[in-house]
# Entry
Amino acid sequence: MTSRQYWKSLDFDFAETYSLLRGETGFHFYNQIQEKSRKEPDQKKRDELLSLSIRGSIDLLKQQGIYHPTAVKTNVFARKSREVEQLSQILQTEFIEQSLWMCGKTFRDAIVFYKGGKIVSHINICLSCHWIETCKEVSIDTDDRVFPKLREFFTAIGHPVAEN
# Structure
């Protein structure tokens, strides 16, 4: 599915943006994972914990809708807002080329979509390796031109985009 197809499939009333795994909270979260892994006697569980720490590929929301411990809500936008229109234009950029970087995805940005007060979907975004996944861990084919635009969009709305 392309980002354009994903966007056209959405039916929502409002969207929230989240920043996660940044700053002191993200630093402490990683340290806690690494400390737990050192104490874990089971090699498989230890590897899973370390992988979690290294990749940082943690969904903003767990199955039950619990937010990630480092997530900070940065904005709420109505469906008809100027910001959602900007986001629409960005995500509907025609898919031409997507670079597949060899780095581990670290989802530090997310957008959650609501309809009738309930979550209908969300996307996790890694601006570093140009990757977007849905809440069901489905990769969204996204043109490389989208990511600088997303970075600019997040910056304009006061959403932190620095890597730390």
